[in-house]
């Protein structure tokens, strides 16, 4: 649903033997949870921003006269910047200070949110969303690293539980909050309030962070792989730009050239990462992870699974509001059926994973695929005019499937990684999540938007069929994940 929680026990610098230093001293017993509350403000910004946007997309499209590709970039641009900067941000925070980078990330997120709320055109909104994604990448790893430093021993599971609870509540409430804000039309601002609400929340976090969160940094931080960062950005842009823009422009020559360059850029990036590792450097993605069959399957499974997530929210929002004519608030209520099922199942997912291992991931992917198929069949019957309640069974199955996949997929892959690999694997899994969200929106858009000529119901069915097929691939990949140990 939101950003997956990595285990702070396995941050890269800790695994390499570096010791994080903390200054000033740890707060007293009564105040020891105050820093966590401040950090969770940053977490809530990231998760809420992902979910409130879903129900606002149709309003954004109408108000700014955005094209289909413009709507896709509002989602994909955020994920692209998040994915590219995520690993680099963790290393920067180890070097300059985690609190400092967290504060910088929140400040940048506030500025970008204000720019989103004031955006006069689609291009300005997309640019501001890219900056938001970059700011989210600065916040996410620093929150987890600071939790790992501030809460050792028995306090750590409690802190991580609070972190997970905030993510879950924000995910469940996000669609409803977004729908309520858009429908309320406060100050006649409409969808703009979903971004502007981040400003006071972020400013509150900034006011508290320097007072309550102590600074920490690694003694021997890894260097930022600048060449890898540039190649990763070029590779993803070479893929996403033609996939999103090429269809609308009737596939001009530059889009085909860009797609042809993508494999070459990926190959160049792989060689650069391997060279960095051989020289004793710190590549963004350690190529040795791909040598292990189970880890390779796990990372690919993570990528394919997240190709189905943001894209499914996008087409569901468009079907509900543009196709069925629901208000943003009513669409948000429909989304909560899915998120409630996810939360109910995700509570039990860790115990199920310990008992059944990768079978839980396979079952979850197939359950979600079944839910997508049931939704497609339901929409074929009710079209855009039948009872909205008929969608509930399919949405519940989708939510159950997500609950059985998101955390179990991460923990199953991490369980296979040894102590020295765990930090790298955790970072790679987070990166695959954001890359998958961006690619998924682009690929599903190639199916959904051309089918709009036959109506929103038909386009939604085709999009669901593509998503269900990808989930079957995830289930197949899950069979090659490590057994429970």
UniProtKB/TrEMBL annotation:
<dbReference type="Pfam" id="PF07690">
    <property type="entry name" value="MFS_1"/>
</dbReference>
<feature type="transmembrane region" description="Helical">
    <location>
        <begin position="189"/>
        <end position="209"/>
    </location>
</feature>
<keyword id="KW-0472">Membrane</keyword>
<feature type="domain" description="Major facilitator superfamily (MFS) profile">
    <location>
        <begin position="35"/>
        <end position="485"/>
    </location>
</feature>
<feature type="transmembrane region" description="Helical">
    <location>
        <begin position="435"/>
        <end position="453"/>
    </location>
</feature>
<feature type="transmembrane region" description="Helical">
    <location>
        <begin position="101"/>
        <end position="128"/>
    </location>
</feature>
<keyword id="KW-1133">Transmembrane helix</keyword>
<feature type="transmembrane region" description="Helical">
    <location>
        <begin position="134"/>
        <end position="151"/>
    </location>
</feature>
<dbReference type="InterPro" id="IPR005829">
    <property type="entry name" value="Sugar_transporter_CS"/>
</dbReference>
<feature type="transmembrane region" description="Helical">
    <location>
        <begin position="251"/>
        <end position="270"/>
    </location>
</feature>
<feature type="transmembrane region" description="Helical">
    <location>
        <begin position="33"/>
        <end position="53"/>
    </location>
</feature>
<protein>
    <submittedName>
        <fullName>MFS transporter</fullName>
    </submittedName>
</protein>
<feature type="transmembrane region" description="Helical">
    <location>
        <begin position="73"/>
        <end position="89"/>
    </location>
</feature>
<feature type="transmembrane region" description="Helical">
    <location>
        <begin position="327"/>
        <end position="347"/>
    </location>
</feature>
<feature type="region of interest" description="Disordered">
    <location>
        <begin position="1"/>
        <end position="26"/>
    </location>
</feature>
<dbReference type="GO" id="GO:0022857">
    <property type="term" value="F:transmembrane transporter activity"/>
</dbReference>
<feature type="transmembrane region" description="Helical">
    <location>
        <begin position="303"/>
        <end position="321"/>
    </location>
</feature>
<feature type="transmembrane region" description="Helical">
    <location>
        <begin position="163"/>
        <end position="183"/>
    </location>
</feature>
<feature type="transmembrane region" description="Helical">
    <location>
        <begin position="359"/>
        <end position="383"/>
    </location>
</feature>
<dbReference type="InterPro" id="IPR011701">
    <property type="entry name" value="MFS"/>
</dbReference>
<dbReference type="InterPro" id="IPR020846">
    <property type="entry name" value="MFS_dom"/>
</dbReference>
<keyword id="KW-0812">Transmembrane</keyword>
<feature type="transmembrane region" description="Helical">
    <location>
        <begin position="389"/>
        <end position="414"/>
    </location>
</feature>
<feature type="transmembrane region" description="Helical">
    <location>
        <begin position="229"/>
        <end position="245"/>
    </location>
</feature>
<feature type="transmembrane region" description="Helical">
    <location>
        <begin position="459"/>
        <end position="478"/>
    </location>
</feature>
<dbReference type="InterPro" id="IPR036259">
    <property type="entry name" value="MFS_trans_sf"/>
</dbReference>
<dbReference type="GO" id="GO:0005886">
    <property type="term" value="C:plasma membrane"/>
</dbReference>
């Amino acid at each position: 649903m939101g950003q997956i929680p990595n285990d702070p026990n396995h941050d890269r610098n800790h695994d390499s033997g570096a010791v994080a230093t903390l200054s000033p001293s740890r707060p007293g017993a009564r105040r020891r949870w105050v820093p966590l509350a401040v950090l969770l403000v940053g977490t809530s910004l990231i998760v809420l921003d992902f979910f409130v946007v879903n129900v606002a997309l149709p309003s954004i499209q109408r108000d700014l006269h955005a094209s289909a590709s413009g709507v896709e970039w509002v989602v994909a641009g955020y994920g692209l910047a998040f994915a590219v900067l995520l690993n680099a941000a963790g290393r920067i925070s180890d070097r300059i200070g985690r609190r400092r980078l967290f504060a910088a990330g929140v400040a940048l997120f506030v500025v970008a949110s204000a720019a989103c709320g004031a955006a006069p055109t689609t291009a300005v909104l997309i640019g501001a969303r890219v900056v938001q994604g970059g700011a989210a990448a600065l916040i996410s790893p620093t929150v987890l690293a600071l939790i790992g430093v501030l809460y050792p021993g028995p306090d750590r599971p409690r802190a991580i539980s609070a972190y997970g609870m905030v993510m879950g509540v924000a995910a469940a409430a996000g669609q409803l909050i977004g729908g309520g804000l858009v429908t309320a039309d406060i100050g006649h601002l409409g969808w703009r309030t979903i971004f502007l609400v981040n400003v006071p929340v972020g400013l509150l976090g900034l006011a508290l962070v320097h007072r309550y969160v102590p600074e920490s940094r690694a003694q021997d931080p890894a260097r930022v792989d600048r060449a890898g960062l540039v190649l990763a950005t070029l590779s993803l842009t070479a893929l996403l730009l033609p996939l999103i823009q090429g269809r609308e422009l009737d596939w001009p020559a530059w889009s085909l050239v860009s797609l042809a360059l993508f494999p070459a850029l990926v190959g160049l990036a792989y060689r650069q990462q391997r060279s960095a590792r051989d020289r004793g450097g710190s590549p963004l993605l350690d190529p040795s992870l791909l040598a292990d069959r189970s880890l390779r399957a796990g990372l690919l499974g993570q990528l394919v699974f997240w190709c189905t997530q943001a894209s499914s929210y996008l087409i569901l929002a468009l079907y509900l509001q543009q196709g069925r004519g629901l208000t943003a608030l009513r669409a948000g209520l429909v989304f909560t059926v899915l998120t409630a099922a996810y939360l109910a199942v995700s509570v039990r997912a860790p115990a199920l994973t310990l008992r059944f291992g990768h079978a839980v991931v396979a079952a979850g992917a197939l359950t979600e695929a079944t839910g997508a198929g049931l939704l497609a069949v339901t929409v074929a019957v009710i079209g855009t005019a039948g009872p909205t309640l008929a969608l509930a069974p399919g949405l519940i199955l989708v939510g159950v499937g997500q609950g059985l996949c998101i955390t179990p997929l991460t923990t199953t892959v991490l369980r296979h990684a040894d102590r020295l690999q765990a930090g790298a694997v955790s970072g790679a899994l987070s990166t695959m999540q954001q890359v998958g969200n961006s690619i998924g929106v682009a690929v599903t858009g190639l199916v959904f938007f051309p089918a709009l000529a036959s109506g929103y119901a038909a386009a939604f069915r085709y999009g669901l069929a593509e998503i269900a097929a990808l989930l079957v691939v995830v289930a197949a990949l899950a069979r090659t994940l490590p057994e429970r140990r």
